[in-house]
Amino acid sequence: MPSSNRPSPAPQPQPQPIEALVSAPSAALAEADDTAASAPGFAPTPDSDELLAIAKERLLGNYRPAPVVFVRGRGSVLEDSRGERYLDFAAGVAVNALGHAHPRLVRTIADQAAKLMHVSNYFYNEENVLLAKELCEKTGFDRAFFCNSGGEANEAMLKLARRHFYERGQKDKYRFIAFDNSFHGRTLATVNLTGNPSYKEGFGPQLEGITHVPFGDIERVREVMGPDVCGIFVEPVQGEGGVLPASTEFLRGLRALADEHGALLLVDEIQTGMGRTGRLLGSDHAGVRADVITLAKGLAGGFPIGAMLVREELAGALPPGTHGSTFGGNPLASAAARAVLSVLYEDELIDGAAKKGELLGARLAELAARHPDMCEGERGLGLLRGIILKPGIDARQALGRVRDKGVLLTIAGSRVLRFTPPLVVTEVEIDEAVRRVDEALASLRLESISAG
Ligand SMILES: Cc1ncc(COP(=O)(O)O)c(C=O)c1O
User: Which listed residue, 257, 283, 322, 344, has the most CB atoms within 10 A of its CB?
Assistant: First the structure.
């Protein structure tokens, strides 16, 4: 179990000494415990086994969660209901950009909740107006639409692209080009856009007007382009598909083809945006400007929010009554996103993600080289990285062994262990996480040898 792999104590840099967080009760977490225990009206919390039994009985069953129940976190560390601590290199699947319980984000959410939480889009609210301004200024886009998740943001992008041409009298310009192996969400439209047939199996007929082509194959895109194409839908790095960065030439080629055919370049920055790859947007690496982007995940550091940012020419594409979202852009989510945006710049976390991403990439390359029988290599950008397991290595089993060593990762594609630590992760934590993954792979090898 994780606590058996405690590193030896040594002074460490902020935000939190890893030893204190991983192996001994930190003052901060203990204090949080006391507060929770003394709060009035709380029934005694069931223990871990009881919680897992309730989850099995009462949750729908559409996920396959690990048998761990988390109760609190701080920085890059999570603590479960048994008191075990983990280095969280999943970060809620690239969501907790500021780590857990970041004081600025916590304070902002608490203050805003006490001030104004929700008013609906029948009115403006201060936080949302200011968030739109700040996001547009930082990204260079002109207008923003807000919603609550990535899938919902991509729904908006699909609708906006079709409706833009409809408004201009080009009613037959509604086809999308999307890519094999892509992931764009779980709503009915976005599973149809997603380039993995298993996600849409059993959900009825294919949505009309989507053509999938191999990711990276610009010639194939050229072949399938036509006057009926309203948009090319692409991720700068296919995250769920296995951490596959698009090449600069490919993204620039898509921009050129979109322009040639009067189509929109629609970039899904849900996983790659908000500094995750070491630039504010994943598409910034290629110097490509999209017509529309979507954001979610890290945007409010764990508070649910999604956004679509568009160029001025598209400002009238969704006239009043054509689209909306009850919770979208509410003051609480907007305040959280504004706090995250401020901290990203004040603490230079985007440049930090580039620098720490280099370190993580180098460490993962060394790790892969130390286990050539199990790993093919590493790939990724910034703090969105993966090690590619060899065919035949069971990714789920590897993930479990890594978790047993006290590190949380996710699987991307069928055989990539994905690393998406918080942007506040320290170099010490990166080294420690990689050391533990190394031990996990070694123990997996020993296990398979002894199993014959
Ligand atoms: C690139 C991309 N698009 C869309 C989504 C869907 O976002 P959500 O789960 O918030 O609906 C994801 C989620 O993993 C994603 O990675």
Answer: 283
